[in-house]
Amino acid sequence: MTHIKKTFREAALPLAIVVSIGLFCLLPSLEARADDGDNQSTAANDSWALHAQFTNITQEHPQFTAPYSGANSLSVNGPTEETTDATLFAGLRLPHDAEFWINAEIDQGFGLDNTLGVAGFPSGGAYKVGANAPYLRLPRAFIRQVYSLGGEAQKIDSAANQLDGTRSADNFILTIGKFSVVDIFDTNSYAHDPRADFLNWSLIDGGAFDYAADSWGYTYGAAVEWNQDWWTLRGGIFQLSSVPNTKISRVDFSEYSVVLEAEERHHWLNHAGKVKLLAYANRANMANYNDAVQLARETDATPDVALVRHFSSRPGVVLNMEQELSSDVGAFFRASASDGQKEAYEFSDIDQSVSAGVSVKGDRWSRHDDTFGLAAVANRISGAAQSYFAAGGMGILIGDGKLNYAPEKILETYYSMNLISHVALTFDYQYVTNPAYNQDRGPVSFYALRLHADF
């Protein structure tokens, strides 16, 4: 039996690759069938769509300085890890400009140290749950309804989770079902997709945006978007996990998150830009760090947030900006903060975060489909959180047993090279000082290789 398990684990990655290749081979024939025949109208061709993607990320770090370690520490001599995911996006047009989308995904692999040891974790392809063998999930199943409010007709191109067609510039959109909060909120053209741009968790989203999510980043909820000319207002309500940082097994909104976002669109020197301001509030059973530390002192024990949870709120805000500087250069900036007295609930142990960076297309060196990115981020935790971790407390991703505090600082750069149409290879480097806010450990260099294909 042990031999069989070992053989299956060794076959996990090749199996995931074979399944993905099969998807890519199947899709062109399906699309050809949809386009075949003189009697089919354009509307019929647009009535359904299939897309697929495959991503493999291999990441490692060399040995670094660490005089001590805790249960959630990054290993000094950790092994190289890889994550693989293959996704099939299936969409169907419903009556009255509605769409139904369902995503089936095969996942496999682990983040470094089971996705522990750095608050701004270095791989957006890593989930909080890992497995040697590939397993099937259903990350998204939702309905999107668009209500026209007039204005200029806009062309919508076919993409993953988006049917092609036309849409009025002024509209109202309702999305309901299972999806990711950051599919709709806190998006950014230059830093949001770990399959195509930056990898670090605190760069692809606002670091202190503690959005509702299961261990893979998805949840149940509903979102509305009101789009008018140069502005958009968004709002949503989403289910939190019943216990912080755990799986969501059923629909239950007794613990929930409310998100509001305002977006302004503009042109500066004839180049497009956006400014977004987001506010959220999580309502659930959660702990106050000071209560956990006080109880630990009274009982001569290590502080444990699980012992002092009660129904409370954790609010936060995110400022998100992006600006095209030229036809091939864009820049972004994010600043986020949350209530540092309460434990982080779903995302990561970050109370304040500031990030900025640039993205450059390869036109300047005759490689139009290549992209170079460079960004930096600084993450912080509150004084209450510092006391909790210094006394030996454990968080979502961090906990060294004790703490010599300093802000966690991260520099990331990547080069995404187009190999053939729809296939890109990315080289990524990250330099992290004070991992898990601990200046007694590190700095750490992370090296990653990402292979991504989509259709």
Report mean pLDDT, rounded to a whole number. 91
User: Which regions have little confidence, pLDDT < 50, spanning 5+ residues?
Assistant: 1-45
CATH superfamily descriptor: Carbohydrate-selective porin OprB
- Widest β-sheet, arrangement of strands: 1-2-3-4-7-8-9-10-11-12-13-14-15-16-17-18
Q: What does the overall shape look like? A: globular
CATH class: Mainly Beta
Oligomer: single chain
What fraction, in percent, of the residue positions are helical?
10-25%
CATH topology: Porin
- How many domains in all? 1
Using DSSP, what is the number of strands? 18
Separation, N- and C-terminal Cα atoms: 39 Å
Strand and helix order: HHHEEEEEEEHEEEEHEEEEHEEE
Largest sheet: 16 strands, antiparallel, barrel
Rg on CA atoms, Å: 22 Å
Report the β-strand fraction as a percent range.
over 45%
CATH architecture: Beta Barrel
Describe this structure in words.
- This protein is mainly β.
- It has one domain (2-38, 45-454): Carbohydrate-selective porin OprB (Porin, Beta Barrel), CATH 2.40.160.
- It is 13% helix and 46% strand.
- It has 6 helices and 18 strands.
- It has helices at 2-10, 12-35, 42-45, 201-204, 289-299, 383-390; strands at residues 48-60, 81-94, 98-109, 131-148, 153-156, 165-168, 171-179, 219-228, 231-239, 256-268, 271-286, 310-326, 329-338, 352-362, 367-380, 408-420, 423-433, 444-454.
- The strands form 2 sheets. A 16-stranded antiparallel β-barrel has the order 1-2-3-4-7-8-9-10-11-12-13-14-15-16-17-18.
- Strand 5 (153-156) and strand 6 (165-168) form a beta hairpin.
- Helix 5 packs parallel to helix 6 (383-390).
- The longest helix has 24 residues, at 12-35.
- The protein starts with a helix and ends with a strand.
- Residues 1-45 have low confidence and may be disordered.
